[in-house]
Amino acid sequence: MMSSEVITDMKARTLRRHMKESLRNLARNGWMTFASVSAVTVTLLLVGVFFVIMMNLNKVATDIEEDVSIRVHIDIAATKEDQDALKNNIEKISEVDSVVYSPKEDELNNLISSLGEEGEAFKLFEQDNPLYDVFIVKTKQPEHLESVAKKIEKLDFAFKVRYGQDDVEKLFSFIKTSRNVGLVLIVGLLFTAMFLISNTIKITIVARRKEIEIMKLVGATNSFIRWPFFMEGLMLGILGSVIPISFISMIYRYSYEYISSKLQGHFIQLLEFNPFMFQVGGLLVLLGALIGIWGSVMSVRKFLKV
Amino acid sequence: MIEMEDVYKKYPNGVVAVSGISVRINQGEFVYVVGPSGAGKSTFIKMMYREEKPSKGTIMINGVNLGKLKESKIPHFRRQLGVVFQDFKLLPKLTVYENVAFALDVIEEQPKYIKKRVMETLELVNLKHKARMLPTELSGGEQQRVSIARSIVNSPKVVIADEPTGNLDPDTSWEIMKIFEEINTRGTTILMATHNKEIVNTIRHRVIAIENGQIIRDEQRGDYGYES
Predict the structure, then answer these.
(1) How far is CA A204 from CA A28, A31, A114, A119, A145, in A?
(2) What pLDDT, in 10s, does the model give residues A136-159?
(3) Chain B residues inside the 8 Å CB shell of A210
(4) ipTM score assigned to the predicted complex
(5) B174 and A CB contact within 8 Å
(6) Is residue B192 within 8 Å of residue B180, measured between CB atoms?
(7) Which residue out of A19, A204, A214 would a mutagenesis test of the B interface target, given it has the greatest number of B Cβ atoms within 10 Å?
């Protein structure tokens, strides 16, 4: 009987052997390696770009969603009690998330500061403010805006209920569509890449059919035969993710700086380079590895039935 | 020891390659398997190393029942035998040494043992001096010697050879036979399918003749018995 120490020593040696074997095969099948790595590279590049765009679109959508609110102008005739009653009634609507009171003085200040220098002219109104006191109502889901707005309209002392009806709806439907399209594209790309890789690996395996046959004849187990291919797939996938990751993070750094400077002070923000790019990098390495392993395992399976 | 009892092999396409073979081969025997092409020789040989599974009957090799052998156990079974083919089946990109070491490598032997054992075996087939060459740099006979070295490097009890001299000229064939004889005298069973009349009639051993999937003749020290 062998001691467990000897067995683990043997496994480490076998692992090294598989490692060496797969590296040697990658080098030996130079062009095939190049083809597979290119397939992974192109796919991951496209997937990565789509992913980055989609995630940012998502971020923009959330930013907008979080910012969208219903503005309820309170009737001037309303007393303090009427206002409280209105606030209570609005809060009772189940879809409502928060109700914030904004007195007309604040509203005017906001208006003045949002207009910049031209806003100075409005300072004249500070003596006789023509604006209304306002409740800013946020809903739990942006989809609820319309229905909530309609319910508030029916309440007493709600003089005017406004939200960016058409614009908001168009934006939401646009974002929703682009999200779905992006998702479909990503899934489609991943599948194409898997088949591409599985095919390229299949070609290298056909060339190594003889080797597999001999391995089987001299008593190699299936898992022993499978290991180097498995590692090759893994390496192909990881190699294929190097260029996309560097390229995307480089481009993102520049785009982020450029777009951020344009968006300064705006409530919409892109996802920050750190940690977003590390997440994207991790995801691409993982996808590359999975594609590679899947491709190699799929194509070797057939040949093990010799 | 090899024991076959009433073995049948019917392929999925309906061809019956072996129909009712029973035979017993003792440890250390040298057996020629002869017969015309398509008589069932190859299937007979392939069933021995469990490339093909018998449709009916039992095959016992060194106590292993091949009909009941699980797929996952086939590799371990094959480590107890050596197989030699007409077309050598060497890996062209590996050196002579690497081709032989391959057989020990894949069954995860210790590196020190592999080195010692491969050199010993190459010495036996007289190719120690060509260990670093590639198969393509060798003659046909030398390539077959490499392939024989690979088949015996793990000290199998049985060596199965399917037309090992089929691609070789007469002089080279004799060389190969000398090596098989040498292996046999060390106690290894040799089972060799062949069309080489001269060899069978000169180096006398047990002859099993197969025709239409059946054994029609089984003689100790027999002759080839066909006009070739």
Answers:
(1) 10, 10, 65, 71, 58
(2) 887 777 777 777 777 777 777 777
(3) 89, 91
(4) 0.84
(5) no
(6) yes
(7) A214
